[in-house]
Amino acid sequence: MHFQVCRNYYGYGYPCCDKEGDPILLSAFGPLDVEGLVKSISSYDYIRTSLKHLEEGMILAKQSAEKKGEPYSQLTMVVDLNNLNTSHYTYKPFTYSYLTLLAIFQENYPLAFKKILVIQAPSVAQYAYTLLQPVLSEHLQNMIEIPGGWEERLFELVDKKDWPAFWGGEGKDPNGDEKCPSKVVYNEGPIPESYYADDKMEDKEALTVYAGDKRLLDFEVHTPNTQL
């Protein structure tokens, strides 16, 4: 089930290379149904899948460097924030996983990207970025661009003919699909409830306690000196 959710609803791909010949990671973060994702897969699976996508790009970057005869290459990341909503930064189960992923990335992959370009950012994106800034390293902040005229900036980095038409370019799959599903996973719809995890514990309740937080629970003790 985890594989199907990530394969069908976790929007990402490597549609083409930038003008320097290095791979571009396209992350369709805005359309992601974060609440449905949390109900369908574990935090561990989300983080593991995200790092797997990054590792795929690093392999492509290594191949790019070898082809150009250079010691190393870095990725360009394009983040599509179309349809971003408040759930992306207020739904605690997801934000906890995302911040954990971000910490792992900054600690272990600080040089993976040379540029992170945000496109189709709605008005709430700037507020979300302001909330995120305190946990971003200065190095990472210097890489992030959120331009108003994103198309002009995007095509300074990538040839329009190579970029998927759905995101403003001219590229299409052989069958004419502008989203280039042969290279990019993209699905705007919410994750169906049929994908939601079933722990077969109808009489139980799940409780998440975040770092620095606490919960007071009441237990009915039937046996004296019982230890929890």
From TrEMBL:
Signal peptide: none annotated. Residues 9-175 form the CRAL-TRIO domain. InterPro entries: CRAL-TRIO_dom, CRAL-TRIO_dom_sf, SEC14/CRAL-TRIO_domain. CDD domains: SEC14 (cd00170). PROSITE patterns: CRAL_TRIO. GO terms for cellular component: cytoplasm. Pfam families: CRAL_TRIO. It comes from the Eukaryota. SUPFAM superfamilies: CRAL/TRIO domain. SMART domains: SEC14. Gene3D superfamilies: CRAL-TRIO lipid binding domain (3.40.525.10), GOLD domain (2.60.120.680). This is CRAL-TRIO domain-containing protein. It comes from Romanomermis culicivorax.
